[in-house]
Amino acid sequence: MITPHRNGPVEETAWPGPRPSLCSLLKWMASDTYHWLRDGYGQHAPPPGEETFTDVHIRHLRQAMGSRLKIIQFTKRQETLNGADWELWIHNQTHGIGLRIQAKKQDRRGQYGFWYWPKGSPALQCDMLIHHALATQCVPVYLLYNYRQPWPIDQGWASVLCGHTAPDRSHYGCSLLSAFHVQASLFRFVIGFDVHDNYRQISHQRLRGLSAPWNQVLCDLQTSKEKRRSRGVAVLTDIQKRAETLERSGLAALGHVDTEGFPTPSHVRRSRHGRDVPDLRTRLGETPTEQPSEVALKPLPERVLRLLEADPARPPEQEIPTRAVVLYDVTDAGELAAQPGQA
Ligand SMILES: [Zn+2]
Fold this sequence. Notes:
Blueprint lengths: L4 E3 L2 E3 L9 H19 L9 H16 L3 E5 L2 H4 L6 E6 L4 E10 L19 H11 L3 E7 L9 H4 L15 E5 H14 L11 H6 L2 E2 H4 L15 H23 L9 H7 L30 H8 L14 E6 L14
Parallel strand pairs: 4-9, 5-6
Antiparallel strand pairs: 1-2, 3-9, 4-5, 6-7, 7-8
Helix pairs in contact: 1-2, 4-6, 6-9
Zinc ion binds next to helix 8.
């Protein structure tokens, strides 16, 4: 049950209880993240790191979702090869949508480490995230961990999101941002700069404002009884529609950037030092079309079908590894009762 209760001056969101919807669980996790970060920047310093949040989020998903969820965690050796934190697939056993997720924590100044070139990496983390997402047929996203004042959601965005919110607005604690918005900003930043190696030209507040609470993007609660018989097709369609809206907005931003002919911000940066960057997949130059009236569900890639069958203790080696792949099956989501306050 989502029961707002008084705990000191803060109204908190309670643990959603047995058999929660993905929406109510993600909402609780966002709320927990929001308060945990606020405490960490306040009276209970220091705040936890991104890896801690990822581990705790995976634990909560595992704990709450039971057989609807399969989690495959990979070894440290594999994770060092790659930037993305985890992959989330929401599926109905045959079709589904995948997100490749990079977590970013809001720092004391309200900024996120978007301009980040990991040691030993051939490119910026953002460019690698997009490159790997395209190779794994995923939507590349940043998962922002926020603790400051919520922001107004753009009207076009708001119209497709679900209306399930926390009473104290702490569901803004975890929000999803298209990596293409970040890539567009990094292009502007790196093309505009010469000697000032700082974040001043990246508007962190603007980027955060283009993100949306993750539970409202990935909501799996449905209203019509008729829809419930369809093996999660209605739920999946809604989630895919929201993920595509997220991506289209990022691609539109990328389309407005003068990239001076460079394929990625990493290439701009390295060219200043006369150095090369390997070929990276990019969606630069792809003009997003209008929202199609019908959403066509996508068949799950072979790799994901194999993971669905795999023994989690002995998962098949991943060509493009990640820390964890989380597979959420929506086929019986229709049995979930809407929580109080989630009409
Ligand atoms: Zn919802």
